[in-house]
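User: I've been going back and forth on whether these two constructs are worth ordering. Before I decide, could you fold them both?

Assistant: Sure. I'll take them in the order you sent them. The first construct and its structure tokens:
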Amino acid sequence: MMRKLIQIVFISFSYCELVSPTDGSNLNQIHILFEWDQVPEAIEYDIQISQDTEFATIEDEIRTSSLIHIEKQVIDWNKTYFWRVRPVFDAGPGNWTNSFTFNTGQKLSESTTNDFEECCYEDGVTIFGAFFNYFSAVIDRSGQEIWNSGNDNFVYYSLSDQGNMLGCQLITGTQNNLPGSERTFNGDIIWEEPNNEFLHHDLILLPNGNYLGIIETSSYGPIPVGDWTTSFQSLGFQADGVTVEFPWIGDKLVEWDRDSKEVVWSWNVFDHFEMSDYDELGGTWTEAFQNLHYDWTHVNAVIFDEEESSLYISVRHLSRITKISYPSGDIIWNMGHSMPSGDANIGNDIGFSFQHSIQKLENGNLVTFDNGNLSQEFRGTTDPISRALEININEDGASVIWSYDLPSDLFGFASGNTHKLKNGNYLLTTVGGGGRSIEINNEGDIVWEGLYNLSLPDGAVYRAHRIPGLFPIEFTVLVNDLMEHDGIEGVYLPEGNSSIAYEIKNEGDHPILLICQISDEQGWFEAQNIEISIGVDESQSISFIGEIGNIIGGNPIQLMVTPIDNPIKEKIIMVNAYTAPLSGLNQFYPSDFQFKAPYPNPFNPLTSIDFIITEKQNVNLSVFDLNGRKLETIINSIFPAGNHSIDWNAKNTAAGVYFLKMNINGISKTEKVLLLK
């Protein structure tokens, strides 16, 4: 069953609650994000990480003003860790929270590295996918594995603009055994293709929010005349180059609607390529005799160019790269080896063959990995040679402006890719030599080399990219001037024209663009949206001005912070605002109450809710969804002073995140719960 990822964080200020990693987590990574709640009046926080419950030995202790710490140094594989946090006030440290524990799994790769040019390495880590043993992993510059796909049999294809992985998962025993999906580094599945047809080699996310992949399709065609003719005739085929008698396997590009998963656009090679064009030299017809079908086109990569509204595909067995107008489907050009149809109209002399991967640069150039299976025939090399290519395309045709030949012992007959990096270097990935990625500068010098130590046929690297890190979009939101008095927490907003302020810090690996929207129960703040951009390791203050009216009790104010590029990482911050200074609140509200965190949480379908009141009061407890709609009133009755516990049975409620809001004597407190089904 697909898990729908909801990364909406509700922050409760009743105490320093640990958020992530949740207690008892099992993690397939050793770069770990720690997150906790804001504590009123705290100026900093201490976080301790240990391998023993008593914290007698500390692996690391960090002091930070943020609510997130990303640990990249002290965590190791196959270990159990404990962590805790304490707030730090002007007067000194507060109390430690109870500790949470988490476990790290087993590493999956045996990667090593060679570092040749320390000054020239492109910052970041390297992610790769491995076929046949079906896993993906991320290694750092030193070769240390920092993340893997665990037991999911997930093979990485590419990274979306939102920082999520696109790839396939091996499901043995099924007809279409490599369904594609988008997922996070936490293992949460964002989207899965419907798996009605066999998807292979690539899946991309389009700017319109839909997904596009390469699907296998077939039609009957002739068996052309060649060295293989007598072999086919011995099986009873005519094999005369004319008789339509043999199954040809081709490819279809399919676009699925993100929500309905219905096919909304497609493009079929049988409608646009001529069957007179086929591979004569690479042994594909010998394989056809063995397999009793012909693998005609074998499209192995697709990218979308939003600026020109076009698709580029790599057609391996035609040694061709094709540019397609979207959505018309018209072919703009075919680049590569000349064939009988004459449809390959540019770049006939470049000589790439059985190529894999496409990258389009901002200057319009294309980057690809020339597997070079036919380099002896096309380029006159002594041995088959794989190479990286950057190709310029203009009105005069196509020409190579940069190339790098791998040594013959690193020849990659299949898969692999070339990734041009931000610093101008190129990352070449080949199945040769046990699978490796090599970072090359413009002069052809090796800067860095990652060796994956995979052995064919049981392991082959598919693709690899340099990425900033495992945490593309992470940020904290701090409420300025958050105070507490006698257990009442919130901000003081004087009557009249007043403002509430927040501090937002980018804790992730990418710059982020955020939309911040405020709302409140009393209508103090008219609809206000603020759009902000925050660079890596930067922070920004925002404030909202409202017309504050006098009330008895607190006015819940909600701030919704939504990353434009990744809405699932939205955070909701709730805080009560008061029109009397917090230092004097107890004279107005003598009947404060404690609303404890529901347990268990997550739950299915029953969770217990404990609260304490100091005198006889009417208690109202209601359930709200993520959009602020009230779904149910659990209780609305008078309770005597003392400790109380009630249960919420959510058996008739859909799985998801909900807010339990308790209101007593005009004071509201809220807790977030996660219902699983």
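The second construct, handled the same way:
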Amino acid sequence: MAGDIVNSDGSLNTANWDAMYAAAGTDGWIDYTRGKAATDAGGVKLYERPHFTIQKGGTQNAGQIGSIYEHGSATGSDGGAYSTSQTDVVTFGATSGSGVVSLQTSGYTNNTGQLKPQPQWQRGFQVEHANFSSYRSSGVLPAGNVKPMFVASSNDISSENGTSRLIGTADGTIFGVGSNTAANKVSVKLAPGKLPVAGAMTNKAEFLFVPVWDKATRKGQVAVIITAGTAEGVPWTDTNLAYRWWEEWREAYPGLPNQGNTSFLKVLGYVDIPGMSAPTSVAVNTGMHPWQMLGADARAIGYANSPVKDHYLELRDGGVNGGRIARGGLLAVGSKSEKKVVYFDLKPLFAWVYDSYYGANHTRGERANLGLGDSQWPQTMALSGVTLPVVKTVAFADQVAAIKFTGTRPAPQTPGEPFNWVVTNSAAGQGTVHVMGVGGCLPGTANNKSCAAGDISARSTVAGLPYVSSIATMLGMKRTGNVDLNSGFWFVGRPGRDVGFVRLNSSGAGGVIGLQYKTSIEQCADPVGLADIDNYSNQSNAQLLMCYNDKKVATYRTDTLFHNGSWTAWAQSTSVQGTSGVPVEYYGSYPTSGKPVHALTANVP
């Protein structure tokens, strides 16, 4: 129960450590991490656009018969670039299935626009990812509810990447699900007694960082997990050069930037978080934009530069493709009850990877000794000597609800200064955004930048938010002057059923609440989280809300539909039809066996 986890003042009850562990994946955990559910009415019941079903007899793809759409008509002609988005939803307490629900949350094809959440036609309208059957048969996952805790992906930093999503479970298993065309099978198990509570992946899927509660030592730690991506269906053990797939590397190279179809996971070690017993949030950024891995012909350079042993001079400093590998970064771990954020410097980790592939000791990164053993490449931190130094610990007066970094900008656009946003909640239930400058700590591809405590400083605050339960990456909204992951984020406040976004000033001098509305009991009585629906090919400008006690997910749209990245409104689109002054539309919901808590989406090519 929640009372076992927190004291009357909302602080963590560390005297009852066993109850804290037992509460993972339960209502008590959500009450602690997201606040109590709203008890009042209020909210606006928003306009819901009519739904239509693709019928037999047309010229459309036969597999889509039965799909629901709201825009256009199923004529079979194309209505902008084809795309769909897949969203993986983590739920608590599922009474059937795995607890992870895979849905289509947008679709543009055959002159239709689809935004109501629904099963994917590409998978025969199944809501459980196809990888689960093999995970169960191999013993990676048990039958039934796997008790998922979070979903992580590199597209939470850079919307151009992140085809695969990684799910963390309460028993410490990390496993991969992905899109319909990027679904490599991969898994790893954390050491016993480590409860994973969140996950953050670096910009180009090089590493996954998972804050854990260590039961034996009662310490907060970060699991450092190195990753590699390969072509679809190609295991990391493959000794042949793989086929051309999204310009991916032709072999598995852990720690190098990749296209996000993760096929290799290895725990390098666990790093203690000084002064923190119970981390609850995490964020990471390297300053690396995905486009920095593109060559002059707009192709990713992995395929052309495989195998590394034949091309390492081209990607090292001074080479023809020098400066395309991340050289450092910043990891931020927050604790709600302990009211602090601890920042780690990732430069030693990325310097080790770079030197192993492209430096004087580049042969350390060769595949001859690639494997999961401690001494095999990549070696564990205990053997390699790599450390993650603490740069700074920042204490706050109020509880830390969430943390997130700005995104990244491609050259030649002026990069702008990067920031870290820390959202806190006061005892009175008021949310505040703390804008933290993190200048020299996100080096991108610069190898001469170092990260020091003085590089992390409080710049400004944005007050006046409601109680904030969670925040989510904003993939872009044209109607607000194209606010995106560099200049704002979505927030959800469970106690008041509040949804909105904050737009931050590019100079770090504060910001404003750009939109705020309250969900209605009929449409989403208990919002606890949000995922911005992927805008990679077609901009839906829609969001998926996790409605916890409703046991459903629901879609809302906040701007005109745009297609093919042109910012030209699709001919079959229409402006948002607001209700009672709220410029938002409701697109319906999809029921889930468990109570949804976290989700991420990706474009499905």
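Notes on the second construct follow. The CA atoms of residues 295 and 301 lie 6 Å apart. The first helix runs from residue 2 to 5.
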